[in-house]
Amino acid sequence: MSDVLGWRRTFGAIAPSTNTVVQPDYDDMRPVGVTNHYSRILTPNAQLSNETFRAGIATISDNVMDAVKSVMTCAPDYLVMGMSAITFFGGAKGADAFVAKMVETTGVGISVGSHSTTAALEAYGGVKRIAILSPYWPVMNEAVTGYFQDMGFTVARNIALQCQSWTAIAKVTPAQCRDALRKLDGDDVDALVQVGTNLSMTRLAAAAELWLGKPVIAINTATYWHALRANGITDRVSGFGRLLEEF
C-alpha cells in the first residue's frame, strides 16, 4: 500500500540546520500526492569569510550522512538534496561521486543541485554562456564555475554576495538579488543561474525571466523540478517560471 498522503511519492529532503528557505520553497512547489520529509544537517552558524568558507562546507559534509541515515528511517521513495555547495566540489566527477555514494548508501535515487541545474539548462535548450549568482564567497564561486565548465558551459561572469554567516544568507532581500541579476545580465549571456539553497530566489527568478527575456534558474526550483520529473511526476506548477510550467 502507498503512503496515505504521499501516495505518489515521499521525498526525503536534506538541508543544513541553518537553512530557513529551502523547506518552504520545496513545500510551495509540492504537488498533491507528494510529501516532503526534512532531515537537517547539523551546521554551526559560523562567521564566514573567503578563508573560512571551505572549512564550513567541510563541517557540513562531515555531518551529511547522519542526516541521511535519519531521514531514511521514514523509508522515503527518493531523496532531494537541499544543500548545493557540496555537490559542486570536484567538478562533474565530484558531483557524480556524491550521487553514487548517496545511492549506494540508501538504495534510492537523489536529485542534487549541481546536476539538477545542468538538466534545467539543457531543458531550456540553446544555452552555452551563463552568469552565476551566489550568496557564497569567491573561493566557492570558483568551484561552482569549475563544475559548469566541466559540463560544457562558459561562465561569462559571477557574483558572490559574500554573506557573513549561514543564517545571513536568508536575509538577502529580493532587491539585492534583482540588482545583482541586472549586473550579471548582458548580450553575451544566454541564461542566469542562482546557487545557494538558503537564498530566496524561486519567485524572483520567475519574474526576472519576464523582464530579462531569458532563462533565470533558481537552484531550489531546479532541484525540486528534477526530483519530480525523475519520478515521472509531470505536473505543471505555476508561479515558479518556465521550468515547472513548460518542461
Tags for this model:
about 250 residues; alpha/beta; 9 helices; Rossmann fold; four-stranded parallel sheet
Strands, helices and their partners?
Layout: E1 9-16, H1 22-28, E2 34-41, H2 53-71, E3 78-81, H3 91-106, E4 110-111, H4 113-124, E5 129-134, H5 138-150, E6 154-160, H6 174-184, E7 191-194, H7 202-212, E8 216-218, H8 219-230, H9 242-246
Parallel strand pairs: 1-2, 1-3, 3-4, 5-6, 5-7, 7-8
Summarize the structure in short.
With 247 residues, this protein is of the alpha/beta class.
Describe this structure in words.
There is one protein chain. With 247 residues, the protein is α/β, with parallel strands linked by helices. The protein folds into two domains: 9-114 and 221-246, Rossmann fold (3-Layer(aba) Sandwich); 121-219, Rossmann fold (3-Layer(aba) Sandwich). It has nine helices and eight strands. The protein has helices at residues 22-28, 53-71, 91-106, 113-124, 138-150, 174-184, 202-212, 219-230, 242-246, and strands at 9-16, 34-41, 78-81, 110-111, 129-134, 154-160, 191-194, 216-218. The strands form two sheets. A four-stranded parallel sheet has the order 2-1-3-4. A four-stranded parallel sheet has the order 6-5-7-8, sandwiched between helices. Helix 4 crosses helix 8. The longest helix has 19 residues, at 53-71. The protein starts with 8 loop residues before the first strand and ends with a helix. The model has no long low-confidence stretch (mean pLDDT 97).
